[in-house]
Each structure stands twice: as C-alpha cells, then as structure tokens.
Design brief:
With 179 residues, this protein is of the alpha+beta class. It folds into 2 domains: 125 residues, Ribosomal protein L10, N-terminal RNA-binding domain (Alpha-Beta Plaits, 2-Layer Sandwich), CATH 3.30.70.1730; 51 residues. The chain has a 5-stranded antiparallel β-sheet, with helices on both faces. Helix 1 packs across helix 3 and helix 4 packs across helix 5. The N and C termini lie far apart (103 Å).
Length: 179
C-alpha cells in the first residue's frame, strides 16, 4: 500500500502523463548539479517540464492512464521524465539535442499516444524539421496541390462554356442595337 506522499506523487504523475503529448525518459545518473541545472534550463526554454521520477510510481501512473501498450521494461534504472505538452517534435528535439552534447545522460525511451517508443524512434522524431505544425502544413500542402489541380481541370470546361455563351450574348446584343 503506497504511503500518502507516494499516492500524491502518483496522482501528480498520472495527471502529467494524461495531459502530455509525449513523455521522454532519460537516464541522468552521473550528471553533476551544474549539468542537471543546465538540462533543466534547456527544457524550460523548450517549454518541456522535466523532473526525476521513481520507476514504480511512473509505471503505476501509466497503468492508471490505461496505457496498456507501454512496455514495463522501460521503467528501470534512474529515470528523469521530460513532459512535452504542446509539440512532440519540439520536446524530442530539445531532449535529443542535449543528449547529443552530454557524455553522461542517456535517452532511454518515450511514451507517445499510450505506446512506448525506442530511443531511436525518439531521435527520429527529434530530426523532423520545423516541428509538428510545419509537418501538418506540409501534409496539407501535399494534399491540396493535386486537389486544386483536379478542381481546375473539372471546372474548366464549364467555365469556358460560360465565357463562350457570354461572348455570344454580347455579340447578339451588339448586333441587335446596331439595326
């Protein structure tokens, strides 16, 4: 039975996991206080909440959020969690950028959409250019281009017919007023 303090921490983690779009797990064992403060500052600048969490409490929080597809093997070793609430790509980019410069911190995995991701998948998300909004815009642009062309092709004959009829009507009107 968890103590009152642990129950409060579980509720806090459950809330954060439920609200976050991505939760990235990082092993920070061996980081100096100076490095940890630098990491926290970089996470704040990227609008990512960063905190140390006990694996058992984090696993219980995931279970309470009905994240059944999360592999429980990711909850081992010392774990710090980066919660990204707005943009999954920006959060992954912030964490992977720090990990690439750090000699001590190690990217463990992540939780995205109730599923666990490998460290390689998180790095792949971090390499997406621009962020989530730019990716959405590119998809919309990719879909909109062919649709706009198809619309133009389908409406062109009717539009051209209207122009021909309008020109013919103007020609008839000009001929009738001349007499």
């Amino acid at each position: 039975m968890p103590t009152q303090a642990k129950e409060v921490k579980i509720e806090e983690l459950t809330d954060k996991l439920g609200r976050s779009s991505i939760a990235i797990l990082v092993q920070t064992q061996g980081l100096s206080v100076k490095d940890m403060n630098e990491l926290r500052k970089k996470m704040r600048d990227a609008k990512v909440e960063f905190q140390i969490a006990k694996n058992t409490l984090l696993r219980i929080a995931a279970e309470r959020n009905k994240m059944t597809a999360v592999d429980n093997k990711i909850f081992n070793g010392q774990t710090a969690v980066a919660f990204g609430y707005e943009d999954e790509v920006a959060a992954a980019k912030a964490v992977t950028d720090y990990i690439s410069t750090s000699k001590v911190a190690v990217l463990k995995s992540a939780i995205l959409g109730g599923r666990s991701l490998t460290a390689e998948q998180v790095e792949g998300i971090g390499k997406i250019k621009g962020g989530k909004d730019q990716s959405k815009a590119e998809v919309v642009g990719t879909l909109q281009g062919p649709l706009a062309s198809a619309y133009g092709l389908f409406t062109a004959p009717l539009r051209d017919l209207c122009y021909v009829l309008q020109a013919h009507a103007e020609q008839l009107n000009s001929g009738a007023t001349a007499e």
